[in-house]
Design brief:
The structure holds two protein chains of two kinds. By secondary structure, chain A is of the alpha/beta class. Helix content of chain A is about 40%, strand content about 20%. Chain A has three domains: about 60 residues, no CATH class; about 80 residues; about 170 residues, von Willebrand factor, type A domain (Rossmann fold, 3-Layer(aba) Sandwich). Chain A has eleven helices and 13 strands. The radius of gyration of chain A is 40 Å and the shape is flat. Chain B is an alpha/beta fold. Among the domains of chain B are: about 150 residues, no CATH class; about 120 residues, no CATH class; about 70 residues, no CATH class. In chain B, strand 4 and strand 5 form a beta hairpin. The chains are: A alpha/beta, B alpha/beta. At the A-B interface, strand 1, helix 1, strand 3, strand 4 and strand 5 of A face helix 1, strand 1, helix 2, helix 3 and helix 7 of B. Chain A: It comes from Halomonas saccharevitans. Chain A: Pfam families: DUF444.
């Protein structure tokens, strides 16, 4: 007897648990590899998995085995020129060639010293963002939110035919039928009994008038019984849907960058990596993430990604122009009730001196109340200027939603990013 | 014989075609009187095959990181194109579960059905080791029980505690088998019910053993002798266990002083599964040789009857040849003796000896030469394991064909010595030596429980019977560390050769040793 079973549709990831256990067990080692990879990789490269190696010694499963040494005989195939009594030099590398081993040991890959495997993209990002958390994820107020979702909320007596709840309707109909028929049935039973009693009497004693009366009554009741409708509009029940306010699952990330002459391509690359990390991070937390690129020198402009990172401009720097533009864009396209707003600003710290105060004002009065989080990275090895000082005052006021750090070289990005978003212990 | 139309041509397949082929193979297998369990053939994807692989072929397995590691290794090797996945996987159960990968060509599917569903299947059903040690109808049930029990333990005691216990058990699982006693089969429910009883009973037994009030000395061997160190005989009473125990995990399960009942049960589960795989480890050459012999025979019959066309047959021969190929010792592809090649060669030659014996065969196999080949092969399949099978049936012709030779590697000599080659003087020694090479008792160090100091420091002493001065590999330390975790008290291991202790290992290490 033979059965064929097509299992292809069955659950695939049967080993997922075991795989996860393995990753958990060697968490610290893998994390080290991942951190190295993040620092090494080019920016466009974050979206794939990573090959990770662990010294095989650390993850071996020991069993009792024969060690090298002693006396043993080995039978091997493929003799060409040997005859009995020949003496041979030991092949290099010592004990090798003790073939035959256990069947399962052969698929360990080539690396005897390193156990190499590939993390999937998801697993890779899990490690990258391990222990990080988006700040201020708690919602302001549900009533502020315009976003709604329809949810089931019991049944109601009215609704559209498309939402009819058949089971409940039929149950109502049955209940009504039982209720309406019960008195009729009772009367009918009584009439039938009375008639039977009357007919059992001696023919002489029978009352013909009563008999015909009862017969009429029975007929009338039977008609009434049949007249009880099987289903009535009164029975119909509909699935009820109500609107429920919904935490927004959409986020928009404003990338703000200074493109004045003092920002070199190296600066921009560092900034780009920072934006990228933030973008990946937001993408993991929101269903939909939109990007808005705002660059500025003395004037601000909304541009596409290519232009944002690669076109060169010269001239002075007025940071407030960019913040004003961000404010306008929010006003026009991203109402705070529907969108989670993030701003990431990168600059080398240059600004017109009196503009910095304007920036602080703009932030405190217009932007900060609506933003989820504002991050500022200053890419400079030099001392801070006026902008940094003004921003420090903003940070003092909005310490939970405003963060600023200095980056000197590319290697700092990941640590700084981790610091900005590290999971804070709940107060 | 009338040649019929091929059932299908090309490399695509569907379930009707598979069914038709299966039907024909079953008919031919029946002609050859192959006795099999019913087949359950499952078509799966590559990823599912990797899953199956990683869980060492158990259709349901408990969770453990080592299986995840296995999976990653398989996946990596497969992605790099280093390793074609095995085209088949077959499980010793009743019904016999065989996997077909969806990517396989039609030829592969037919080949796998012949190889696994009739070759391996009949081996599982017929070979004495499998008959004695495994219980095909209940294994899947038992696996279900094991998985459920272990995940319950994880819930109750934490994943980490269970993981550490399993690590320790896995390190000793090759020493968790009974070589002589036959276990009795039980179903999952039965197992579950018994498990509860066992917990209570077992604990009572352990408590008896470890009572702190010493019982009356039992040892007769020492009776009458007065030990000056111990005139009252407090430490007398003979060694425990009185006989060395080969099943380390069994000994732990029954005697480890500190294990909780659930821990004993987990030890038992690992031990039971080791026992289930024990026959497979001892019959690689035979099992694969038998399956190859039958797929070769059945495929040729299909071709003779015209049920497969030349194209398919060529593809088959190409695949078959690469499976039973034996690279020479100096080839870059050499990785020991290929069990498929050796097994196939022996079975094929055995058939030849029956059908067309030479003078040499008559001398070497007086009873076999000229006998009915089908009966002889069946006898060989049923009643041997690799070790004895080679000893009994490896013919001079096979040794010549494979150009076998024997090298003696003695670390006290500067050079290796070729001790025997495939010639008149060497045949017997080659055969003996190869047979020994497949003896599990020789492949794995012989280690037994020698004594548990139940009246003293509760230490456990193991004995390694060393042969040919072959020492234990360095992995001995992590393994006895695991053993120490299970036992809970100091563990000692002595290597003994010719009744003399040549090396001692112990765990835990003293402070200064740790720093080394």
């Amino acid at each position: 007897m033979t059965y064929f079973i097509d299992r292809r549709a069955n659950a695939k990831h049967k080993s997922a648990v075991n795989r996860q256990r393995f990753l958990d067990r060697y968490r610290t080692r893998i994390k080290r590899s991942v951190e190295e990879a993040v620092n090494r990789r080019s920016i466009t490269d974050m979206e794939r998995g990573e090959k990770v190696s662990i010294p095989a010694r650390d993850i071996s499963e020991p069993v009792f085995q024969h060690g090298p040494g002693g006396e043993r005989a080995i039978v091997a195939p493929g003799n060409k020129e040997f005859v009995e009594g020949d003496r041979l030099r030991r092949p290099g590398g010592g004990g090798g060639g003790d073939g035959s081993g256990e069947g399962s040991a052969s698929n360990q890959g080539e690396g005897v010293d390193e156990f190499a495997f590939t993390l999937s993209r998801e697993e890779f990002l899990d490690f990258v963002f391990d222990g990080l958390e988006l700040p201020h994820l708690e919602r302001k107020n549900l009533v502020d939110l315009d976003e709604v979702r329809q949810v089931r909320a019991g049944v109601s007596r009215d609704g559209t035919p498309a939402r009819i709840n058949i089971v409940r309707s039929m149950r109502e109909a049955q209940a009504r039928r039982i209720a309406m028929r019960a008195p009729i049935r009772r009367a009918l039973r009584e009439a039938v009994e009375a008639l039977a009693e009357e007919e059992r009497k001696d023919p002489v004693l029978r009352n013909p008038a009563r008999i015909s009366e009862l017969k009429e009554e029975i007929e009338r009741l039977e008609k009434r019984l049949e007249a009880v409708p099987f289903i009535d509009t009164y029975d119909l029940r509909y699935n009820n849907l109500i609107d429920q306010p919904q935490p927004s699952s959409k986020a928009v990330m404003f990338c703000v960058m200074d493109v004045s002459g003092s920002m070199t391509q190296a600066h921009k690359d560092i900034a780009k990596r920072f934006y990228l990390l933030l973008y990946l991070f937001l993408e993991r937390n929101y269903e939909k993430v939109e990007l808005v690129f705002v660059r500025h020198h003395t004037a601000a402009k909304e541009v596409d990604e290519e232009e944002f990172f690669y076109s060169r401009e010269t001239g002075g720097t007025i940071v407030s122009s960019a913040l004003t533009l961000v404010d306008e864009i929010i006003e026009a396209r991203y109402p705070a009730g529907q969108w989670n707003l993030y701003v990431a600003q990168a600059s080398d710290g240059d600004n017109w001196d009196d503009d910095s105060v304007a920036c602080r004002k703009l932030l405190v009065e217009r932007l900060m109340p609506r933003l989820q989080y504002f991050t500022y990275v200053e890419i400079t090895p030099h001392a801070h200027q006026a902008l940094w000082e003004e921003y420090e005052r903003v940070e003092a006021e909005y310490d939970k939603r405003f963060a600023m750090r200095q980056i000197v070289e590319a290697g700092d990005i990941y640590p700084v990013f981790r610091e900005l978003f590290k999971r804070r212990v709940a107060p | 014989m009338t040649r019929r139309q091929p059932i299908a041509t090309g490399s695509d397949w569907n379930f009707e075609i598979l069914d038709a082929f299966e039907h024909e193979i079953a008919r031919l297998a029946d002609e050859y009187r192959l006795d099999t369990y019913p087949n359950q053939i499952e078509v799966i994807t590559t990823e599912q095959m990797m899953d199956a692989y990683a869980s060492v072929g158990m259709p349901v397995g408990y969770h453990h990181w080592s299986f995840g590691k296995q999976f990653l290794a398989v996946e990596q090797a497969y992605r790099r194109g280093q390793m074609g996945l095995a085209y088949e996987l077959v499980i010793n159960s009743d019904p016999c579960i065989a996997y077909l990968m969806e990517e396989n060509t039609l030829m592969m599917q037919v080949l796998v059905m012949a190889h696994a569903c009739y070759g391996h299947n009949s081996f599982f059903k017929g070979n004495y080791l499998f008959r004695t040690w495994t219980d095909a109808p209940s294994i899947v049930d038992y696996l279900v029980f094991a998985r459920k029990y272990i995940s319950e333990c994880e819930e109750r005691h934490g994943v980490e505690a269970v993981e550490q216990l399993l690590d320790a058990c896995h390190a000793l699982q090759n020493y968790g088998v009974d070589r002589y006693k036959r276990p009795s089969p039980v179903s999952a429910e039965e197992e579950s019910r018994r498990q509860t009883e066992r917990e209570e009973h077992l604990q009572a037994q352990v408590n008896m053993l470890w009572r702190t009030i010493p019982g009356r000395p039992r040892g007769d061997a020492l009776a009458g002798m007065v030990d000056e160190e111990d005139p009252l005989g407090l430490h007398g009473g003979g060694r425990y266990p009185p006989e060395p125990q080969e099943n380390l995990l069994y000994f732990i399960e029954k005697n480890a002083p500190l294990l909780a009942p659930w821990q004993r049960e987990v030890v038992r589960i690992v031990r039971k599964l080791a026992q289930y795989f024990y026959p497979q480890r001892q019959t690689q050459v035979m099992n694969e040789g038998w399956a190859c012999f039958w797929h070769y025979t059945l495929m040729n019959r299909l071709y003779e009857e015209g049920l497969v066309d030349e194209g398919l047959m060529l593809e088959f021969l190409q695949s078959h040849t690469s499976v039973v190929q034996q690279p020479a010792f100096d080839s870059p592809y050499f990785s020991g003796i290929n069990p498929y090649a050796l097994g196939f060669a022996i079975f094929t030659d055995l058939k030849r000896i029956c059908e067309a014996p030479t003078q040499e065969d008559r001398e070497w196999f007086p009873d076999t030469a000229g006998s009915d080949w089908r009966e002889t092969l069946e006898f060989a399949m049923r009643n041997f394991k690799d070790e004895s099978f080679i000893q009994q049936f490896l013919s001079p012709k096979v040794m010549r064909d494979l150009k076998l030779f024997m090298v003696v590697d003695d670390d006290q000599e500067e050079m290796l010595e070729v001790a025997a080659i495939h010639d008149e003087r060497g045949y017997r020694r080659l055969r003996d030596s190869l047979s020994v090479q497949y003896a599990l008792a020789v492949r794995e160090p012989n280690i037994q429980v020698y004594a548990a100091d139940i009246r003293g420091d509760r230490s456990l002493t193991l004995r390694h019977v060393q042969d040919g001065r072959r020492p234990l590999a360095r992995s001995v330390y992590p393994v006895i560390r695991h053993l120490h975790q299970l036992w809970g008290f100091p563990v000692r291991l002595e290597s003994v050769e010719n009744d003399e202790v040549v090396r001692r290992y112990h765990w835990p290490l003293a402070e200064e040793e740790r720093r080394e």
